[in-house]
Design brief:
By secondary structure, this protein is mostly helical. It is 68% helix and 6% strand.
Length: 519
C-alpha cells in the first residue's frame, strides 16, 4: 500500500479511536470501551502492515494480522454488549483469538499463504456470523434501519473474506510474504474497517435517541397516569375534556360528564388503614371500568372521586350509565369485607360552556346525590325533554311468554308513565309519593305472583330472586319517604321505576328465569 494511503487510513482510524475513547469516558459503557480498544488495535495493525517499526518482517506481519483480527473480535464483543446480551463469551473470544494467532504463526513460519489467509479470514467470518446471531437475539430496542445497515456490513465483510480465501487458493506456490492480492485486500479491509466505525457511532447515537424517546414517552405517561389505579389522572382529564368539548361543538353532539364519589371512604381509611383504602380504590376503579362503553373514558379526579367523560351521550343515556355503574359497585364483594356504594352526579355539557363551569355543575350534582342519602344518581338541571315529554311504551321483545307476568310487567311500566304525566302537570311531591305507594302495592302483588310461578317451575335461583325483590321494595319505601320529606323529587321516583325496576330488574334479572317458563 502507498505510504500516503496508510497514513491517511491510520489517521482516520485514529479519529474513530479518539471518538470512542471520549464516548467511553463520558458514558462508561462496556461496549464503547471495546470499540475504542478495537480501533486502537486496528490503527496499529494497519500501520504495521507497511512500516514494521524495526521488527522482523514475519513478526511485524504477525502482529499486524493479530491486531486487525482483534479489531473484529472487539467489534463483535462490543455489539453483543450493546445489544443487551451481557459480557459473556469472553472465553470463546479468547480461544478464537488464540487459535487464529497460532494458525497465523504456523502459516508465516511455514510460508503458507493459504494457511495464513484462511486463519485470518476464516476466523473473521466466524466472528461476523456471531454478530448476525447477536442481532437476532438482541434485547435492546434498535431501529430497523440500523439493524439492516449492520447486517449489510456484516454480509459484505463475510463476502469479502470468503473471496479472499478463494483468491488465496490460487497462489499455492507463493510464500507468505509475497502476495499480489495483499494490497487490494488490505485496501478493502481498511474501507470496511472505516465503515464499521461510522456504523457503530451511528448505532450508538440511535440507541441513545431511542432511550431518550422512550424516557420521554414514559415521563409523559407518568404525568397523565394515576400511579395507584393505572387510569388517567386529572391532568389528562382536563386535556381530554377540552378535546371532547371542541368535538361536541363541531359536530353538535351531546356530551356528558359523571362525577363519582365513594361513599364513607374516610371511615374505611380511618378504621382499616390506608392500605385497605388503596385496595378499595382499585376495586371500585375496576368496577367502574367494567361498566363503561368503548367510547367512555375514566379518570381519577382525586382522592376517592372519579370522573367519566361520555361522548355523544344525552343526559338520559348518561343517567342510565351512571345507574349501571352504581349497581355494579354495589355488587362488589370487597376485600375490606364492607358494603361499597358510590354517589354519582351527572352534568350535560351546554353550548358555549367552559370546562370549569361544566365540572362545577357535575360537582353540584354529586353533592345533591350525597345530600339525598348517598348510593344514588343525581342530575344537574335535568332537561325537561329528557323524561317529562317522552311516553314509555312496552316492546314485544320484552315478553316472557307467561300471560300473567307479561300483563303485570306492562302495567308496572304504565304506572311509571302515570308518574311522568303527573310530574309534567306539576303534581306535588306529596301527590307523587301517594301514587308511588299505590304502585308499590301492585309491585308487591306482582312479586308474589312471580315467585309463585317460580316455585311451580322449580327455578333454582328463586332465593336470590326473592332477595332482589325485597331490596327493590325497600328502595321504593326509601323513595316514598324522600318524596314526603322533600329531599327527593319526581325525577327520582321515575328513575327508580325506569332504571332500577325496568332496566335493572325486569329486563335483566327477570330474563334469567324466562327459559324455565317454557318447560
Amino acid at each position: 500500500m502507498a505510504l500516503s494511503m496508510v497514513l491517511a487510513a491510520s489517521l482516520s482510524l485514529a479519529v474513530f479511536f479518539i471518538l470512542f475513547i471520549l464516548e467511553a469516558c463520558s458514558k462508561r459503557e462496556f461496549h464503547l470501551i471495546l470499540f475504542a480498544l478495537g480501533f486502537g488495535a486496528g490503527t496499529l495493525g494497519f500501520m504495521l502492515l507497511t512500516d514494521q517499526a524495526g521488527l522482523p518482517v514475519w513478526l511485524g506481519l504477525l502482529v499486524a494480522n493479530v491486531l486487525i483480527f482483534f479489531f473484529h473480535i472487539a467489534m463483535s464483543w462490543g455489539l453483543r454488549s450493546w445489544a443487551g446480551l451481557g459480557r459473556s463469551w469472553i472465553v470463546r473470544y479468547t480461544v478464537l483469538l488464540a487459535v487464529a494467532t497460532v494458525a497465523l504463526i504456523a502459516g508465516i513460519l511455514l510460508q503458507n499463504l493459504v494457511w495464513r489467509v484462511t486463519a485470518m479470514s476464516g476466523g473473521i467470518i466466524l466472528v461476523m456470523l456471531g454478530v448476525l446471531r447477536d442481532l437476532r437475539l438482541r434485547q435492546r430496542p434498535v431501529s430497523t434501519s440500523i439493524v439492516v445497515a449492520v447486517r449489510i456490513l456484516v454480509g459484505a465483510t463475510i463476502l469479502f473474506h470468503a473471496i479472499r480465501i478463494s483468491q488465496a487458493v490460487g497462489f499455492l506456490g507463493l510464500s507468505s510474504t509475497y502476495n499480489p492480492f495483499s494490497e487490494f485486500s488490505a485496501t478493502l479491509i481498511l474501507i470496511l474497517t472505516m465503515l464499521w466505525g461510522g456504523i457503530l457511532l451511528i448505532a450508538d447515537a440511535d440507541a441513545l435517541y431511542l432511550e431518550l424517546r422512550r424516557s420521554h414517552v414514559q415521563m409523559a405517561k407518568n404525568a397523565t397516569t394515576d400511579a395507584l389505579t393505572g387510569i388517567s389522572n386529572r391532568r389528562a382529564l382536563e386535556d381530554r375534556a377540552l378535546y371532547e368539548i371542541k368535538r361536541a361543538e363541531r359536530y353538535d353532539s351531546p356530551l356528558c360528564g359523571i362525577l363519582i364519589d365513594i361513599d364513607h371512604f374516610k371511615v374505611i381509611n380511618d378504621e382499616l388503614g390506608h392500605l385497605s383504602g388503596d385496595e378499595v380504590l382499585k376495586e371500585v376503579c375496576a368496577a367502574i371500568s367494567s361498566s363503561l362503553r368503548s367510547t367512555d373514558q375514566l379518570f381519577r379526579w382525586g382522592g376517592e372521586e372519579f370522573f367519566v367523560i361520555a361522548p355523544e351521550t344525552p343526559q338520559t343515556g348518561a343517567q342510565n350509565l351512571a345507574e349501571k355503574i352504581r349497581r355494579r359497585v354495589e355488587s362488589i364483594v370487597s376485600s375490606c369485607q364492607r358494603p361499597l356504594t358510590v354517589s354519582l352526579g351527572v352534568a350535560l355539557w351546554e353550548r358555549q360552556e367552559d370546562l370549569p363551569l361544566w365540572l362545577e355543575r357535575a360537582d353540584k350534582a354529586l353533592y345533591l346525590a350525597k345530600n339525598r342519602g348517598r348510593n344514588r344518581v343525581a342530575l344537574d338541571n335535568p332537561p325537561r325533554s329528557s323524561w317529562l315529554e317522552n311516553t314509555i311504551q312496552w316492546h314485544s321483545e320484552w315478553n316472557s311468554g307467561n300471560a300473567v307476568i307479561d300483563e303485570e310487567h306492562r302495567q308496572l311500566i304504565a304506572n311509571a308513565d302515570v308518574i311522568r304525566t303527573l310530574a309534567a302537570q306539576d303534581g306535588t311531591q306529596g301527590q307523587i309519593a301517594h301514587l308511588l305507594e299505590q304502585i308499590t302495592q301492585e309491585i308487591k302483588l306482582h312479586f308474589q305472583h312471580e315467585e309463585g310461578i317460580m316455585r311451580v317451575k322449580a327455578y333454582p335461583e328463586l332465593p336470590q330472586h326473592a332477595e332482589a325483590h325485597r331490596r327493590l321494595l325497600l328502595k321504593s319505601d326509601e323513595v316514598i319517604q324522600g318524596l314526603k320529606s322533600g329531599q327527593l323529587g319526581p325525577l327520582e321516583a321515575y328513575t327508580f321505576l325506569m332504571s332500577e325496576l325496568l332496566i335493572g330488574h325486569i329486563l335483566t334479572v327477570d330474563t334469567r328465569f324466562f327459559p324455565y317458563l317454557q318447560l
